[in-house]
Amino acid sequence: MTRSPYFPETAAPRTRQEPVSDTRHGITRVDEYAWLRAENWQEVFRDPTTLDPAIRSHLEEENRYQSAMMADTEALQKALFDEMKGRIKEDDSSVPMKDGPFAYGSSYVIGGQHPRYFRIPRDGGAEEVVFDGDKESQGKPYFQLGGVDHSSDHTRLLWAYDDRGSEFYTLKIRDIASGADAEDVIADTGGSGIWNADDSGFFYTRLDANHRPSKIFYHRLGSSPADDRLVYEESDAGFFTNVGGTRDNRWIMIGINDHETSEYRILPSDDPEAEPKLVAARENGLQYDLEEGGDVFFILTNADGAKDFKIVTAPTDSPERANWKELVPHEPGRLILSVLGFKDFMVRLERKEGLPRIVIHERATGTEHHIDFDEEAYSLGLGGSYEYDTDVIRFSYSSMTTPAQLFDYNMRSRERTLLKTQEVPSGHDPEHYVTRRLMAPAPDGELVPLSLVHHRDTPLDGSAPCLLYGYGSYGSAIPASFNTNCLSLVDRGFVYAIAHIRGGKDKGYAWYENGKRAAKTNTFTDFIACAHHLVGERYTSHDRIVAQGGSAGGMLMGAVANMAPEAFGGIIAEVPFVDVLTTMLDDTLPLTPPEWPEWGNPIISEADYKTIAAYSPYDNVRAVDYPPILAVAGLTDPRVTYWEPAKWAARLRERTAGSNPVLFKINMESGHAGASGRFSRLEEIALNYAFALKVTGKSA
Question: Peptidase S9A N-terminal domain location, by residue (predicted)?
Answer without folding.
Answer: 15-421
